[in-house]
Amino acid sequence: MKHIIKKPEPESFLNWKYTDVKVRRGNAKWSRLSGAKRASIKQELLESLCKEQGYICCYCESKLIKKPCGQNDFHIEHIISQNEAFKNNRPELIFDYNNLLCSCQCNQSEDEDHQCGMSKGNWHSDDMVTPLQSDCETRFRYTKFGKIKPLDKDDKGAQETIEKLNLNAPILVSFRLALMNYMYYSNSEILKRTTDDRIKLEYRSKDERKNKFNLVQKIPINTFFAGTFILGAYNPFDL
């Protein structure tokens, strides 16, 4: 999970909220933003969310791919759902830009494997780990089998977040395994742990690269499944 820093909301979305009577009164549902008249506003909002996230899912970091005719396989996600917002008498959260993210998947059928926002549904907990928390990247680790686990085994919030968001869905585990394999063998590069416990990118000979166990036991790294890597001191793969 990558830390997301929220940026100013789109001006069109902000102006619409100020001029729409129902939204201002706090009795409008999210469907208020649907329809042909507001399609451009919603599209600008979606684009803004995708851009500030680097076009990756807010939870699993898989790439958000645009499809023709707007049939994208991702959706606008509420950290605190509409149901929870109304239940706690906080309807303003429904259109609060700081409560909105972009998650993978959209309109999955019941027999499909749901993950991230589609799996989360209306669930919310004060212990939930969200991408808006500055320490979210330090709360998880990846095993050599491609699964995600809490960095601290006693971190119940991280464990519940993994379970509720189904972050160990088979397809996500497969993506992680493929990425780790790429890291081992691709482009004649190997990641090696340095003495200051950070990452150094080194080039090695073909013979040296044959030994896939050349990496140390734990490599701190924060990854994007989109195919780019941010090297850092967090999210260790448990090798």
Q: What can you tell me about this protein's structure?
A:
This protein has a domain at 11-132. Helix content is 28%, strand content 15%. The protein has eight helices and ten strands. The strands form four sheets. A four-stranded mixed sheet has the order 4-3-10-7. A two-stranded antiparallel ribbon has the order 1-2. Strands 5-6 form a two-stranded antiparallel sheet. The chain starts with 10 loop residues before the first helix and ends with a strand.
Please sum up the structure shown:
The protein has 239 residues and is of the alpha+beta class. It contains 8 helices and 10 strands.
Helix-strand layout with pairing:
Layout: H1 11-19, H2 21-25, H3 39-52, E1 74-78, H4 82-87, E2 100-104, H5 116-120, E3 140-143, E4 148-150, H6 156-164, H7 170-185, E5 189-193, E6 199-203, H8 206-209, E7 218-220, E8 222-223, E9 229-230, E10 236-238
Parallel strand pairs: 3-10
Antiparallel strand pairs: 1-2, 3-4, 5-6, 7-10, 8-9
Q: Give the termini distance in whole angstroms.
A: 19 Å
Counting DSSP H or I runs of 4 or more residues, the number of helices is 8
Q: How big a fraction of the residues is strand?
A: 15-25%
The low-confidence parts are 187-239
Round the mean pLDDT to the nearest integer and report it. 79
Assembly state of the chains shown: single chain
Class from secondary-structure proportions: alpha+beta
Run of helices and strands: HHHEHEHEEHHEEHEEEE
Strand order of the largest sheet: 4-3-10-7
Q: Give the CA-based shape.
A: globular
